[in-house]
Design brief:
Strand content: under 5%
Radius of gyration: 21 Å
Largest sheet: none
Distance between the termini: 19 Å
Structural class: mainly alpha
Number of domains: 2
Number of helices: 6
């Protein structure tokens, strides 16, 4: 059974990445740097570079997955705007910044028009402000 999402619990932690892989790679990088500082050698310098590369690879893979998710959310929300909003408002809403569109996805169909109006009027700007204004939270349970 899924816990109902709201502002306080909507952040998605992916345990394998956040609590296993990243700490292991970070520990390895720090360990290699310590070993290099204790005794310089080209082999140890190479180990530091490899550890840094693995850390960068892990972060880059995560960022790319999140960017792809952002693009899908943006598309889904633009389609939702076409269904729920008058044509002129849907066109204006589709031109919002991606971060704003992503934050608006949590709004229920009933409150979406009012929230979009507030965003377009400049009353709500940041994703946090938008999410805090949502009263009837629409959970997103399929995130990366």
């Amino acid at each position: 059974m899924k816990t109902e999402q709201n502002y306080s619990n909507h952040v998605r932690w992916y345990p394998i990445v956040h609590f296993v892989l990243t700490p292991i790679l970070l520990f390895n990088l720090i360990w290699q740097i310590v070993r290099l500082s204790q005794e310089f050698s080209w082999d140890r310098a190479e180990s530091v570079l490899l550890a840094a590369g693995l850390m960068i690879l892990s972060l880059t893979a995560r960022i790319q997955a999140l960017k792809a998710l952002d693009r899908v959310i943006r598309l889904e929300e633009r389609l939702r705007y076409r269904e729920l909003l008058p044509k002129d408002v849907a066109e204006k809403a589709a031109s919002l910044r991606t971060r704003q569109i992503i934050a608006l996805r949590f709004a229920s169909d009933e409150e979406l028009p009012e929230l979009i109006s507030q965003v377009l009027d400049g009353k709500l700007n940041t994703p946090k402000e938008i999410k805090m204004a949502v009263k009837n939270w629409r959970g997103d349970y399929l995130r990366v």
